[in-house]
Amino acid sequence: MGRDIDEAWIEEAVERYRRIEALHAEFDKAVKTVEVTVRSADGLVEVLVTADGTIRDVRIDGSLHNRTSESLSRSVREAVTAAADAAAWARRKLQAETFGDYRTLE
């Protein structure tokens, strides 16, 4: 018992696959270039991070006079933690924008 091959369906599936591959390439490029800047709660430390989690820059703004090493460390940890959260948020946003028209396979 043979089955007829639906060539139009196959062509559509191949085209859809190619489109998804192109979107993946676009997404991979975007997560490396989209940047988010965050600051520690006290405003002392600023971190620039890309959506893929790469820290591009860390700046200390303001005077370190009368600050302890523990205080500076806490500010750095806060900013780095916020940067990781911001990178994850940016990835989710980019993913939704890039693949929003495609339903997940679950």
Describe the fold and architecture.
With about 110 residues, this protein is an alpha+beta fold. About 55% of the residues lie in helices and about 15% in strands. It is built from two helices and three strands; from the N terminus they run αβββα. It has helices spanning about 5-35, 70-100; strands at about 35-40, 45-50, 55-60. It has a three-stranded antiparallel beta sheet with strand order 1-2-3. β2 (about 45-50) and β3 (about 55-60) form a beta hairpin. α1 (about 5-35) runs antiparallel to α2 (about 70-100). The longest helix is centred in the C-terminal third of the chain and has 31 residues, at about 70-100. The radius of gyration is 22 Å and the shape is rod-shaped.
Task: Record the SSE blueprint.
Elements: H1 7-33, E1 35-39, E2 45-50, E3 55-60, H2 69-99
Antiparallel strand pairs: 1-2, 2-3
Helix pairs in contact: 1-2
Summarize this structure briefly.
The protein has 106 residues and is of the alpha+beta class. 55% of the residues lie in helices and 16% in strands. Strand 1 and strand 2 form a beta hairpin.
